[in-house]
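Batch manifest line 376
LIGAND: adenosine-5'-diphosphate
JOB: complex structure
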Amino acid sequence: MEYKKKTQDSEIQDSLEYAEGIINTVREPLLVLNGGLRVISASRSFYRIFKVKPEDTEKQHIYDLGSRQWDIPKLRELLENILPKTASFDDFEVEHIFPDIGRRVMLLNAREIYQKATRAKLILLAIEDITERKLTEETLARQAKELIRSNTELERFAFVASHDLQEPLRMVSSYMQLLETRYKDKLDSDAHEFIGFAVDGVNWMQTLINALLTYSQLGTKAKEFELTDCDKVVTRALLNLQVAIQEHNAKVTHGPLVTVMADSSQLEQLFQNLIGNAIKFKAKGQPFVHIAVEEKGDDWVFSVKDNGIGIDPKSSEHIFEIFQRLHSREAYPGTGIGLAICKKIVERHGGEIWVESKPGEGSTFYFTLKKAGANI
Ligand code: ADP
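JOB STATUS: finished
ARTIFACT:
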C-alpha cells in the first residue's frame, strides 16, 4: 500500500515536471489555474510580457493579479460562463489597457482538464499578444483604403482634365480653320504653313487627350471578371489588327491558350496592344509574332514574342510609363500610352508585366494572370 502511494506520488511529480517544462518552453504566456481560478503556475513568458513576479502571481486569484489588471469583464464572462459550458474556447479576442504595458489586444485560448488521480479541475489559459499584428493589419487596411481613395481621385482628375481640355482645343482648331478659309487670299505661304503646324499641334494634342482619357477610364469603365477563353480573345484582337497584319505581311501564330478569370475586353486590348507593337516595331524582314502560355505555380505566364527591332534593356521599365517612347513619331507612329495601358490592365488583374529583349534580337513581352480559382 505504502509502496503504491509512493509510486503514485513520484508519477505525479514526474508529470508535474513534464508539464512545467512545456509551460516554460512555449513562447505564448500561459497560465494554469485551479477550479477556483487561482494560479497554480505561469510560464516564463507570462512574467516577462506582463512584467509581474512569481511571488505576486502564484496562488493568487486571477482577478487579484497585478492591481486587479486581469479583472476584465470579457475574461470574467469567458472563465465563469462560457468555459464551464464548453470546456474549451479558441481565439477569444480581448482588448484591455494594462497599468504597466498599456493597451493590448490578446487572443485567449483555454482548456479545462481534469487530473486523473484527484479529479481536480485545471484550466489552461494561453494568452497570445496580437497587439502588433493588429496594429500592422489596421495600418495596412487604412493605407489600402487611402490608396483606393487617392487612385479614384487621380482617375477622376485625369478624366475631368482631359474632358475639359477638349473644349478650348476645339475652339483653337475651328478658329484656325476659319482663318484659313476666310483669309485664304490675304495670307502668304509662310502663314499657311504656320497654320498647318498649329492644326497639326491641335490634332496631336487631341490624340494625346484621348489616350489619357482611355487610360483614366480603365478603372472606372471596367467590367466584372468572368471566365474568359484567351483563344477567343486573341482571335478578336487579331481581327482588329487585320489591316496592320496585311500591310506589314506579318505572320502571327499561337500555341494552345487557356481560360482565365478576367475582364475580357481589357484582355483583348492587352493582346491587341502587345501584338500591334510587335508588328509596328518590326525589323527589316517579315515580322513573326508568337503568343504562348506556360504554367508557373498559381499563375499563367503569357508571352508575346517578336523578331522586331528589340529594346535596350536600360529602357525595359521606362517604356511602361505613360507617354514614354524610344523613337520619334516620324520613325514609328504612336502616343506612348499602349504599354502604360497594358501595365494597368495586368495589375488590375493581380499580375505583372515585363519585357526581355536586346536591340536587334527581337523582344518578348511577358505578363502573368492568376489561374482561374486562385485567389487574387
Ligand atoms: P507606342 O507604341 O504608342 O509608342 P507603347 O507604350 O506601346 O507606345 O510603347 C512604348 C515604347 O516601347 C515604344 O515607343 C517603343 O519604343 C517600345 N516598344 C514597345 N513594344 C515594342 C516592341 N515589340 N519592340 C520594340 N520596341 C517596342
